[in-house]
Each structure stands twice: as structure tokens, then as C-alpha cells.
């Protein structure tokens, strides 16, 4: 790892870190020197995180966290602070989809998405802010999506939550900028993960036609943007959304 | 000066980065000591930690002066 980027001494909390983009972020922050706590919804997921972190020689561990549950968030942040210290880099990555056309969408499908993808970010940020304001430094990075900016049929709920993260982050960036805490968003396009492997061959081909770089992105290409924002190189960037989508959508 | 008064003033000095001599009982955090709204939130959090007390939001909103903080803590500890 380039010595320009050094996260030694930072405590990074990455939600949804058992696979895909979250795992790549956890590994990259860890390789840059941060202590990483990755969360998953199950014991199995948390154990898998602990295993890949230790295999890569990264300090930290996996923990079980349900981001839709207020008490779970409070107890995990408290446990992390007690065991490792104040969280200095929070990466809100955990997210789900419940796609449906609006006319068929059920209230649960709407509520699940808002709770897991948006309310969780409010709660996680609030839980970590006490320590960050005291330390007068911190990074809050939330993973949005290109569809929050471009829209996508079948994803009114998901797009609303993902766009919501942008307004949330801009407002919070203004509130706590005076404490040297930055709040930013990374908006991935179509990335090669389990979430996009569910697409049909036809959907995939159609998508690729609209991506100037003619390929899906890799999780590490999202992690790279997160690493930049988490490091001192990104210190003067706040309230911003970095689009990483191969040119599919140019904001 | 009571023990509570001393500790409250010490925290005000630390949190707001003001001179000890400036901190009078009648001082308003925002009008006299240059605090902004975020400073007052942090100040209440620091008081909570110092005195091991939980200060509810409704009460926190009323703690706008040094004396109000002393009074609240005194009552809470009593």
C-alpha cells in the first residue's frame, strides 16, 4: 500500500461486510492500516468476516448487527468503542432490495427498504458522532447507488432511500464540518456482486450498452473511492457524492 | 464556590475554549461565550459524562447559562 495512504490508528466500522462491496471496503481499509470491525446479520457472516480479516493480517473482527434494530446498533457501537476505541471511520454499506412496480408494492416492501437502507444510516451516524465530535475528527461514508440519481423502474423504494442518503449527508456535513468530520457518499453503478448476479442475461446486456467502459465494476473499485474519502487525501471533501459507475450516469 | 460550580465552570472552559475569567454564573453560552448550537449540545454531553447523569432533551434546551447548568446538576444530584 502506498505510504501516501495510511490509516494506522483509525477504527473503521463497516456494515454489511460479509461479502460484495462491504467486504472489499473492509479489506482495503484494513490493508491501509485501519483496525476494522465488519458487521453481518448472522453469526455465520460475522465469523466469516473475522476469518478473512485475520487471514489478511488485519486487526479487528466481525460482529453481528441488525441495522434495522435501534438497540442492536447502540449495543454494537458501545461494544466496539469499549473493545477497540472510538470509531473514526464509519462506512454505512449494509443494504437490501425489495424490487416491485409501485402499483404492486406492499407497505412492508417500502418500509423494509427505508428502515434498512436509510433509517439505519441516521442511527449509525448518530451513535458514532458522540465519539467523533469529542475527538474532533471522523469520516462518515455512506454507500448509495446510481439509481438514487438516475431512477430505475421497479426500485422506487430503493431509489428513494439511496437519494435520501445524499440529502442526509449534505445536511450532516454542514452540521459537523466545524469538528473536522466529513460526511460523504459513494454511489456505485452496476458492480459484479451477488445483488447484480440476479439480473437476467438480457438485462445485463442492455445495461452494458449504456456503460461507456463496457463492463460491470468490481467491488474493489468502490472500495478505492471509500479509501480515498477515509484517508487524509480526502480531508477537504465533504457533503459530496462520488459516482463510480463506468460512465453509465454522469451527474 | 461549591464543588458542582467549580466542575461546571471547568467543563465550560474546556468545551468552549474560553478564559476562566470570562465564565460568570450569569454568562449565557451563546450570547456571552460565543457558543453555537452544536457547542451547546456537546457541552450538555460533557456535563452528562462529568456528573454521570442523563440530561433529557427538554431539560437540556433550558440549560442556556452557567447558572442554569449549576442549578440543574445541583437539583439532579440532590
From TrEMBL, chain A:
Gene3D superfamilies cross-referenced by the UniProt entry: NAD(P)-binding Rossmann-like Domain
PROSITE patterns: ADH_SHORT
Active site per database record: 158 (proton acceptor)
Reaction catalysed by this enzyme: a (3R)-hydroxyacyl-[ACP] + NADP(+) = a 3-oxoacyl-[ACP] + NADPH + H(+)
Keyword annotations from UniProtKB, A to Z: Fatty acid biosynthesis, Fatty acid metabolism, Lipid biosynthesis, Lipid metabolism, NADP, Oxidoreductase
Pathway(s) it belongs to: Lipid metabolism; fatty acid biosynthesis
EC assignment: 1.1.1.100
GO biological process, one term: fatty acid elongation
UniProt cross-references to CDD domains, sorted A to Z: BKR_SDR_c (cd05333)
GO molecular-function terms, A-Z: 3-oxoacyl-[acyl-carrier-protein] reductase (NADPH) activity; NAD binding
Pfam families registered for this protein in UniProt: adh_short_C2 (PF13561)
Domain Ketoreductase stretches: 10-194
Annotated residues for binding of NADP(+): 16-19, 41, 66-67, 93, 158-162, 191
Stored InterPro entries: 3oxo_ACP_reduc, KR_dom, NAD(P)-bd_dom_sf, Sc_DH/Rdtase_CS, SDR, SDR_fam
Reported function: Catalyzes the NADPH-dependent reduction of beta-ketoacyl-ACP substrates to beta-hydroxyacyl-ACP products, the first reductive step in the elongation cycle of fatty acid biosynthesis.
Family: Belongs to the short-chain dehydrogenases/reductases (SDR) family.
Subunit structure: Homotetramer.
Official protein name in the record: 3-oxoacyl-[acyl-carrier-protein] reductase
Source species: Thiothrix fructosivorans
Designated gene of the protein: fabG
Automatic annotation (TrEMBL), chain B:
Domain Carrier per the UniProt entry, residue ranges: 2-77
Known role: Carrier of the growing fatty acid chain in fatty acid biosynthesis.
NCBIfam families: acyl_carrier, PRK00982.1-2, PRK00982.1-3, PRK00982.1-4, PRK00982.1-5
Family statement: Belongs to the acyl carrier protein (ACP) family.
Lineage summary: Bacteria, Pseudomonadati, Pseudomonadota, Gammaproteobacteria, Thiotrichales
Description of post-translational modifications: 4'-phosphopantetheine is transferred from CoA to a specific serine of apo-ACP by AcpS. This modification is essential for activity because fatty acids are bound in thioester linkage to the sulfhydryl of the prosthetic group. 4'-phosphopantetheine is transferred from CoA to a specific serine of apo-ACP by acpS.
Residues spanning the membrane: none
Location(s), subcellular: Cytoplasm
Superkingdom field: Bacteria
Keyword Ubl conjugation: no
Recorded GO MF terms: acyl binding; acyl carrier activity
Biological or metabolic pathway of the protein: Lipid metabolism; fatty acid biosynthesis; Glycolipid biosynthesis; KDO(2)-lipid A biosynthesis
GO biological process: Kdo2-lipid A biosynthetic process; lipid A biosynthetic process
InterPro entries in alphabetical order: ACP, ACP-like_sf, PP-bd_ACP, Ppantetheine_attach_site
Keywords attached to this entry: Cytoplasm, Fatty acid biosynthesis, Fatty acid metabolism, Lipid biosynthesis, Lipid metabolism, Phosphopantetheine, Phosphoprotein
GO CC, one annotated term: membrane
HAMAP family recorded: Acyl_carrier
Protein name as catalogued: Acyl carrier protein
Pfam short name (any one): PP-binding
Gene label: acpP
Modified residues (O-(pantetheine 4'-phosphoryl)serine): 37
